Amino acid sequence: xxxxxxxxxxxxxxxxxxxxxxxxxxxxxxxxxxxxxxxxxxxxxxxxxxxxxxxxxxxxxxxxxxxxxxxxxxxxxxxxxxxxxxxxxxxxxxxxxxxxxxxxxxxxxxxxxxxxxxxxxxxxxxxxxxxxxxxxxxxxxxxxxxxxxxxxxxxxxxxxxxxxxxxxxxxxxxxxxxxxxxxxxxxxxxxxxxxxxxxxxxxxxxxxxxxxxxxxxxxxxxxxxxxxxxxxxxxxxxxxxxxxxxxxxxxxxxxxxxxxxxxxxxxxxxxxxxxxxxxxxxxxxxxxxxxxxxxxxxxxxxxxxxxxxxxxxxxxxxxxxxxxxxxxxxxxxxxxxxxxxxxxxxxxxxxxxxxxxxxxxxxxxxxxxxxxxxxxxxxxxxxxxxxxxxxxxxxxxxxxxxxxxxxxxxxxxxxxxxxxxxxxxxxxxxxxxxxxxxxxxxxxxxxxxxxxxxxxxxxxxxxxxxxxxxxxxxxxxxxxxxxxxxxxxxxxxxxxxxxxxxxxxxxxxxxx
Length: 512
Description:
- The chain is an alpha/beta fold and 512 residues long.
- It has 11 helices and 27 strands.
- It has an 8-stranded parallel barrel, surrounded by 4 helices. A 3-stranded mixed sheet has the order 2-15-14, with no helix packed on it.
- A hairpin with a 2-residue loop joins β14 and β15.
- α7 runs parallel beside α9.
- The protein is elongated, with a radius of gyration of 25 Å.
- The two termini are 23 Å apart.
- The N terminus is likely disordered.
């Protein structure tokens, strides 16, 4: 983002000259159903240790706000049962790692903080006192003497308790992981996948039932590592779903090309194929719950994340629902185990700045509309471009479609504001696209008018697939439409309730 001078960058630069500011939070449910996410389980502990983050312009800012400014709309938070009081853990190989403030109190604090900023929330239950992954699925110390029957109740009670405490604060997570990277199972040896799959399914179902008992709308995620390995996923979910009646809403994956020892270009096609196979084989939604790249290789990390986003968004029938970076705010210099798959660089001491790796989320969510570029806006149904009728430069002139002739009246400049809406300015007239009379009615005319900052002059632009977009007026909530599905020169641009028609889809194409 720093190096490409996008619309948002220019907007923020101007505002910074005017003084300090804070971008407004969005509602908890973002406009897009696709999750552009970050796991920030370390964030609060890093803050407490003195780490700070700068934005692209060198201003110290809340790391969550910086992530939001870069297109991230969802936050993933992990939870341990009874983590050590110093929130560190030493692995079997002697490596000490930071756990983050990931007890119940820490989760509640971060969930409220993220929720107040408009982020969607994922909660990741580890069912251990420390990290759970394919190598570690240790029973929490408080449950260590319990029978399998008791462990099933422990899973239910712990999950129900935490979900209830979130609900008491008005937070109903959009997604809940029951277990983390459970290739080997969980609560070993009782729920070991290699020889106790029936018991593993019962444990997972206990967690599922507890989630739904508190929040029926929360989607339960079953999460495995090595998302590029279709053989592992088929084996696991054939057992879990088909053989043992396991309950889940979403199949989650981790994807780390670095740990595979190869460039992402050698495995991304396998990830894509596995995503598609899980949907067609089990009928579930899919997401990548963890992805990351090397902090010092920001261009490659950008490509890893962007390719992962593209792969998940390409899953048919919108069954690919999100991607989360683990953990972008981190840097090896401030972690005891020097974990280096974050997305920051060191400014000085404990001052960090995010690298361009996280721009992949912004680019995937909003596209790469640049303020220095002019565009034509072409209707999918007619193939004709939006034009100011007769090349008029006066307020109230109507917008029409016309065969593209490279006239300035057919060229447009997009400027993004802090709420994620665009103004669309005509090059010929310097006036912006507007809806006549601030109408909220179907069929109201699209006109040009002197810019005044009104919501009727602001538009959201959402990916409609195959290189086309819907353009929605902020004030009315209706989409830019071609009246009567006209294919003729002079057809009128209007607003209309969204119906998925090609006459409501537009390509935005850079022109000279």
